[in-house]
Amino acid sequence: MTAVINSAAGVRVGIGVFVCRGGRFLMGRRRGAHGAGTWSVPGGHLEFGESFEDTAVREVAEETGVQIGNVRFGAVTNDVFPGEGRHYVTVWMLSDHVAGEPAILEPDKCTDLAWHDFDDLPEPLFLPWRQLVRSPHFDAIRRELSAAR
């Protein structure tokens, strides 16, 4: 059986943010219907008129209370969720941890937070993460974040 995609909902833009500290990056276990139980970096939806950088700063602060800086573009993935009838373009941003200890400030969206690196990724990964790992941009992101140790 073929899943029905709700094209009337359109394509949304999601922002995923690598928050880097000491060669590791922050990840959370997702909660809710969209990717529940999977792991990804903090992030959310691009709001009308907002830059990718502004979205990254806002979403990380709202979700974790952490302040970030040196926010920069990392990659983009095209993510279709057939079972949910959703389609996202995910813009992956890289950033440096500036201040604050991570806390779960939106418990309806995240159940766990932890620092990881590419050698100890938690499972299962959120679909856009799996797309990122297969993308031609992944090695460049991995090199840049690993060099920050």
Describe the structure.
It comes from Dactylosporangium aurantiacum. One of its GO terms (molecular function) is hydrolase activity. Residues 10-139 form the Nudix hydrolase domain. Strands 1, 2, 3, 4, 5, 6 and 7 form a seven-stranded mixed β-sheet that branches. The chain has one domain: Nucleoside Triphosphate Pyrophosphohydrolase, CATH 3.90.79.10. The protein has helices at 52-64, 127-134, 138-147, and strands at residues 12-21, 24-30, 39-40, 43-45, 67-81, 86-99, 110-116. The protein is built from three helices and seven strands. Strand 2 and strand 3 (39-40) form a beta hairpin. The mean pLDDT is 92. The protein is of the alpha+beta class.
Helix-and-strand structural type: alpha+beta
Fraction in beta strands:
35-45%
* End-to-end distance: 47 Å
| Gross CATH architecture | Alpha-Beta Complex
Global Rg: 15 Å
The SSE string, one letter per element, is EEEEHEEEHH
Shape: globular
Poorly predicted regions are none
Kindly identify the CATH topology.
Nucleoside Triphosphate Pyrophosphohydrolase
What is the C-level CATH assignment? Alpha Beta
Question: Helix fraction?
Answer: 10-25%
Summarize model confidence as the mean pLDDT. 92
GO molecular function, one term: hydrolase activity
Domain Nudix hydrolase: 10-139
InterPro entries: Nudix_hydrolase, NUDIX_hydrolase-like_dom_sf, NUDIX_hydrolase_CS, NUDIX_hydrolase_dom
Pfam family, one: NUDIX
